Fold this sequence. Notes:
Keywords (chains A, B): DNA-binding, Transcription, Transcription regulation
Protein name (chains A, B): GntR family transcriptional regulator
Domain HTH gntR-type (chains A, B): 5-73
Number of helices of chain A: 9
Mean pLDDT of chain A: 87
Number of strands of chain A: 10
Helix content of chain A: 25-40%
Pfam families (chains A, B): GntR (PF00392), UTRA (PF07702)
CATH superfamily of the largest domain in chain A: Chorismate lyase-like
Oligomer: homodimer
Organism (chains A, B): Streptomyces goshikiensis
Amino acid sequence: MAEQKPRYYRIADEIRGRIDRGDLEPGQQLPTEHELMAQYEASRNTVRLALRRLTDEGLVISGQGRGSYVRRAHVPAVWDWSVLESRSRHESNTNGGDQWASVVAESGREPRQEVRVSIRQPPADVAERLGLDPETAMTVVRERVRFIDQEPYALADSYFPEELVRGTPLMKPEDVSAPGGVLAQSGLIQVRYEDEITFRMPTRAESERLDLPPATPVAVHTRTGYDKGGKPLRVMVTTLPGDRHVIRYSVLAD
Amino acid sequence: MAEQKPRYYRIADEIRGRIDRGDLEPGQQLPTEHELMAQYEASRNTVRLALRRLTDEGLVISGQGRGSYVRRAHVPAVWDWSVLESRSRHESNTNGGDQWASVVAESGREPRQEVRVSIRQPPADVAERLGLDPETAMTVVRERVRFIDQEPYALADSYFPEELVRGTPLMKPEDVSAPGGVLAQSGLIQVRYEDEITFRMPTRAESERLDLPPATPVAVHTRTGYDKGGKPLRVMVTTLPGDRHVIRYSVLAD
DNA sequence: TAGTGGTCTAGACCACTGT
DNA sequence: CAGTGGTCTAGACCACTAA
């Protein structure tokens, strides 16, 4: 029985083995394509197919003119969705209302966010979660791009039914305080959240806005907030790159 | 200023546009590589680079001898981690103890799982979560591959400190009841869970065990269960393919 | 400027799918 | 069987990086 795997599979397997065994360490440069051609007696395209396999697995990263390197892990930002947005935390928070920013600042890193506010029709799935007619409903949309140490970390888009928040400070673009806080000040109190998480490859647009390296999936975290009567007040859609985030929950068994 | 994007970017953008606009519908066959070469006056490799971009985004799927097709969405299985493993659900569950199986069966699909039990050293991160010495500690490991309608859906590996579960039914391979249940019968009651979710591209091994299509990320859900005194009793690591799963949580604001 | 990876061409043969 | 995508070769030129 001869080996039936394609040549570039075997080249990739061999290099992956070197990485797994630690012969090639994170951050270390791989042999150049030219060297690999010689080592494996293969054409350049075949070598490149093998390297492509490894970059697709997130093991290798390469740059024009620089070479190929074993990929380093990021320092992940931990998002604890059981704690984030809790009112007790919010009240004790000193930096003007944004909880995300204070959590990041506590860890010694520098938060920044760009906010854009508009009024428009929500996407169909958001309308459904808010219990609105997708044809006619309008929502106030707050789109934020969140940066840590000047690098983009996440997209966070919040949707509020327009009729609920008319005339509140929410509609001023310069307001960057936590929506939970602003909502509460307007008498709209969220007592329960329904969170849904999906994960997939980024679209081209997300990839560019977040400056994502190849082979980086995103999680889409959709939080719907309800008031005491079970009426939905807000939907927040957060897009988190996989190489920079860990999502955490605490759950009490019943 | 002329557009300087590479040719295969523009070919990919053009085809992506046709898909986004609905000119090409899910399940529909794309033009053959030969036809695309003619349409865009490009070499075959260039056309293939463009198609590769689209398969990397999860938009297109291709098969040798069959052609390339616009990818269809899966029907996702919803995993509600607030409810799963709750004791109240467990007690009212009629099918012999496995909650996952009953949740799936309720939705009219056919669950099946392959279980393998062994005793061995845990990975370092699991040892740390269990508060064990990574050099010497032994754990009972239950590795399951879960299928729905004969297709692999998830990997679920549970780790128990060996000293805690010695002599319990947990160690019998044929036992497939929910670990929460078995633990409880041994007087080990989990009152709190810490869940952590990361998401990344699958390793080769995961990709093969789960028969994953290209461009399918996985979420790794790690649940650590604690008893009343805060002692860790169990770690469960679930590997979920992104094209078949939605993770859900309910959270009460405090 | 030398060396790297990125883009692109023009072929060839193979493996697999359908008819 | 004809037609598809998968693998592979042997070149060429370009864009970028670092010395």
